[in-house]
Amino acid sequence: MQNRRMEKFRFALAGNSRLAILTAGIFVLSGAVAAQTPRSVPDPGERAAELRVMTYNIHHGAGNDECAPRPAGSAPAADCGLNLERIADVIRTSRADIVGLQEVDRFWVRSGGVDQPRVLAQLLAMSVCFGPNLQLPDEAGAGGPREYGTAILSRFPLRDCRNEHLPRVADANEQRGLLSADVVTPGGVVRVMVTHLSVVAADRVPQTEDLAKAVAASRIPTILMGDLNTRPDAASLRPLLARAQDLWTLAGRGDGLTSAAHPQRPPRGRIDYILATSGIAANGIEVVVNDVTRMASDHYPILARIQLTGAR
Q1: Side-chain half-sphere of 130: how many Cα atoms within 13 Å?
Q2: Whole-prediction pTM
Q3: Fewest Cβ atoms nearer than 10 Å: which of 9, 194, 230, 238?
Q4: Closest CA to 10 of 118, 115, 137, 162
């Protein structure tokens, strides 16, 4: 991926006092940032356990609650359906070990001005890696320059967290990226990649080609997950599906529809995916649909049960 912006930071923090230092300073850096929770050493007793992996477009924590829209021309304010704790509850209830998140905010008024990756990591006692793809000026004193992108949460240590911007056919189109980190699980190291591809079809062609190259370059078992904004039979997905298997085709039942989540209407599209390379077995995969996920975001999460079976 030549001529693409790449930034890399490495941190290994442990203990509550050092976590306080983390929340005060590390997240002011731009680019991908990894931070560790107090749990920094895998439990040897878990060495043979399967892993639970989730992808979730969280819509910056804004749910489907009925509420009055803000009048046109009014000052910026938090979305009336904002509930980040509900997103954390979905993840906690799923017992996910590794989570790829899309549409994550830092310091936006619409999401309460909070650092969402940090808050979710604290609520869930997980390590976090955040990759901003949009970086905009401070908004109404929300706390710092606004950032928007993807994140990886893990209950195991993260290392080599990096975010790389993906190509787009026009500068006016929203910048997208590929966030990756190596997760040190009890069964071995797995590379986790998270992305959210463009809504512009022309952008997705070179973006998917870059994803395929990144997956091919990995020498360890690799998971790529996220909102790919396209259906499974789209021509643009073919280069990627030649490099990584869609786990829904291996272990899913039903249509796998994830969008849009709504309390009254069924979803119509399958645009969220968990893909994996050789060295990873799928024991099961499901779209998590319940009363909470119908309200928490405009996407349903996907949860896969996997096991590492060996090197690629």
Answers
A1: 26
A2: 0.87
A3: 238
A4: 162
